[in-house]
Amino acid sequence: MTNRIQKARKAFEEKDVALARTAHTKKAIQEKAHGSEPHVTTGQYLGEFVYGAIDGTVTTFAVVSGAAGASLSPGIVVILGFANLLADGFSMASGNFLSERTQKDYIEKERRREEWEIENVPGGEVQEIREIFRKKGFKGRDLEKAVSIITSDKKVWVDTMMADELGLIESPKSPWKTAANTYFGFLIIGIIPLLAYVLSYFWQFFAQNTFKIAIVMTLIALIVIGVIKRYVTKKDLWKSVIETVFVGGAAAVIAYFIGFFLRWLVGLY
Q1: How confident is the model at residue 183 (pLDDT cuts 50, 70, 90)?
Q2: For residues 214 and 222, is the Cβ–Cβ distance under 8 A?
Q3: Mutual orientation of helices 210-233 and 237-267 as an angle, nearest 10°?
Q4: Most buried one in 64, 85, 97, 150, CB count within 10 A?
Q5: What is the sign of the dihedral through the CA atoms of 252, 195, 91 and 96?
Q6: Within 10 A of 66 (CB to CB), how many other CB atoms are there?
Q7: Of residues 5 and 239, which shows the higher confidence score?
Q8: 57 in Cβ contact with 189 (< 8 Å)
Q9: pTM for the full predicted model
Q10: Distance separating alpha carbons of residues 106 and 120, to the nearest angstrom
Q11: How far is CA 252 from CA 92, 103, 174, 219, in A?
């Protein structure tokens, strides 16, 4: 299944009709249909990684800019920055895990409800299937045949009710892996704005231009995120980079001015 999907994606990207046909042969499609559980590719976790990376970059830069505005020593900035990376990143990953787990639990509960209704009120459930396919354009004998086919297999029946009646699609993604990707993105990219302060202990140039270098490193971090996004989405490279830099940069600028305003406000008292 994964190989077929990869071929289809490559064919679309390269507009290769011949390759697309090989991905849509009867044999290839049947192998997909009779495959085991849905396969989760690395790209399906990209959203969590990018989400964590942007948040890590922006919140770390917010700590750095606030500390710079308050004229704190590099040591304090490093302590605050790493505390933010480890604690806020873990909090974000935990929230992601609980959100995914809650959604999975809700979907499982609704699936059990549909199974119970099929066993106890089958007539009503058959009528619901009939109405679903009527809205899809089925009529007369075709409608009744479709209803008969769907309701002859309990799993297919429940799957149809879940998708078409409730709009619930079961995700094959693991809550643990989504949380891990969020945390990994937060740490590995979020540390970049902080590196200027770490390196200031070893090089005079960094010590003299710490905050300016932190700004440049934040820009680099956002560019890296844009490149990572492009790797899977296959968007135009510059479009992906500019989009990420604009969104993340806007958030970083807002964080900086909020810190500046709060420093000014505290200075009034």
Answers
A1: very high
A2: no
A3: 140
A4: 64
A5: positive
A6: 19
A7: 239
A8: yes
A9: 0.69
A10: 21
A11: 18, 31, 31, 10
